[in-house]
Each structure stands twice: as C-alpha cells, then as structure tokens.
Write a structure and sequence with these properties.
Layout: H1 6-23, E1 28-32, H2 37-49, E2 54-58, H3 65-77, E3 82-84, H4 88-101, H5 107-111, H6 117-129, H7 131-147, E4 149-151, H8 157-162, H9 183-193, H10 197-201, H11 214-218, H12 222-231, H13 236-248
Length: 261
C-alpha cells in the first residue's frame, strides 16, 4: 500500500486542484490550518497549485496551543499566507446566548429521559464540540466568498469511509484532494513533501476537546482501518466495526434525502 510514487501523486494532486478551482471560475484556495498532517499536506498542495492565491486560516477555539504553534511554523516554513483568528470568544458567546435563551439547555435537562447517564454526557459533549468545526466552516466560507476562492478540505479516504468528520463542519467543503488517500498514504506523501517530522508523527486529532485523539474515539488504529479499506485485510471484529461505523455515518456523504413520490 505504501509503495507508491508519491512525487507523481503530488504532481497529479496539484494539477487536480488547479483544474477544479479554474473550472469553478475561482482564483485560489482557502484552507483551515490545524497543525495536523492532513491540513499541512493539503495546504502545501494548494500553495504549489496557487502560490499567490492560497490562504490558510488558523482558528483556535479553546484548543491546543501546541497545535497553533505547529500550524504557524508550517505556514512560515513553506511561505503559505495565513491569518490567525481566535474563535474561542465567539464560541463562548454562542454558548452563553443559548443558555440565556433556553434554560433547558444544560446537562441535567439533557440527562432527563436518557436511559444512561454516560450516553447523555457523551451527547452533550459532542453537541458542544461539533459547534467548533461549524464555526470554522463559516469563517472559511467568509474568506472564500471574499476572495473568490474554493474551500479546500482535508478529509482523507479513511475519514470519508468512516464518516469521521463533523457534518457541515470540517465536512463543509468544496473539494477534498486527499479523498483517495488513506491515512498511511497521506503520511507517505507528507514525507515526500518535506513536512516536519513532528507533524507527521503526532497523534491524529480533530481537536474537539483536550486529549481527544481520532484512534481513541474510533476505537481502532488507522493501520487497521487503512489495510481493510485498501486490501480488505482485517480481523472479522475489526471489519464489522468499520462497516458499522460507515453505515451509521453514510448520511454525511449524501445529499439531503427528499421524498421520491
């Protein structure tokens, strides 16, 4: 799986981004910089496609200061134009507005009617966390509209298979250049492109809360997921888990359902 010509893949993806942006009648690309491997690779591909018309947005939202630093270092290393806009205050104001407008929006009320306390806590936690990527999506499209750019997403094939993204959040994009590369292949491409080793080896995370990691949340390693996607190799329990997650999240990859009668 990893024995691929990553230089050719890089060149093909740069041309693909140029084609998609030009076909849309746009002039460049805007992308969120998270300090992670997917956004680092995607932003560098965009920079190669549109050296003067690529904008990276660093959008901290009660998130890891280290990720912010990694994102800045990456942008400056490769001369990617970027803006930093902290969304922590708007996020907090959003929560306060909800709490002031609806007194029932609190954990005690969320628990009411739930069979298990743990389920209620998880639902509440996810509802809050998913607001962050949706705020980021709004800001990305503001700058896309402002500059006549496309919003370029960072979703890879592994995430798309599982539906592991926030609907209308980091899934709210125009194009996904990494959509045909599994996570291990993205790492191979990152090495080819000279991405910093720290970014390549850091634990994948959506940055939704402190200590959150993709593999802990999914309950599977990307190696297990990737080999199943590419080669069909997996323990029966692993394969069943992947397909169960994929089926449950399939709505994220589809247009809104409408009646057919």
């Amino acid at each position: 799986m990893l024995d691929r010509d990553y230089k050719e893949i890089e060149n093909n993806l740069v041309e693909w981004i140029q084609e998609k942006v030009n076909k849309a009648g746009c002039q460049g690309a805007v992308i969120g910089l998270s300090g992670g491997i997917d956004s680092s690779v995607t932003s560098l591909l965009c920079q190669k496609a549109f050296p003067n018309n690529t904008l990276g947005l660093i959008m901290p939202c009660q998130s890891s200061p280290e990720d912010r630093i990694d994102a800045i270092k990456h942008a400056e290393k490769f001369n990617i134009k970027y803006k930093e806009i902290n969304l922590s205050q708007p996020y907090q104001q959003f929560l306060e507005t909800i709490n002031n407008s609806d007194s029932e929006i609190n954990l005690e009320k969320a628990i009411n009617g739930q069979r298990q306390l743990q389920d209620a806590q998880e639902n509440f936690k996810l509802a809050l966390a998913n607001m962050k990527p949706r705020l980021r999506m709004t800001l990305l499209y503001f700058y896309a509209n402002l500059n006549n750019y496309l919003v370029v997403g960072t979703d890879n094939r592994s995430e798309l298979k599982l539906g592991y993204f926030t609907k209308f959040g980091d899934g709210g994009i125009d194009i996904a250049p990494l959509g045909n590369l599994v996570k291990l292949e993205v790492r191979g491409l990152a090495r080819e492109m000279g991405i910093d080793q720290k970014i390549i080896t850091k634990a994948p995370s959506a940055g939704l809360w402190d200590g959150q990691s993709d593999e802990d949340e999914i309950g599977l390693s990307y190696r297990e997921i990737d080999y199943y996607i590419v080669d069909g190799e997996a323990e029966a329990e692993t394969a069943a888990r992947i397909e169960q997650i994929s089926s449950a999240n399939s709505h994220k990859l589809e247009l809104p359902a409408i009646p057919d009668f």
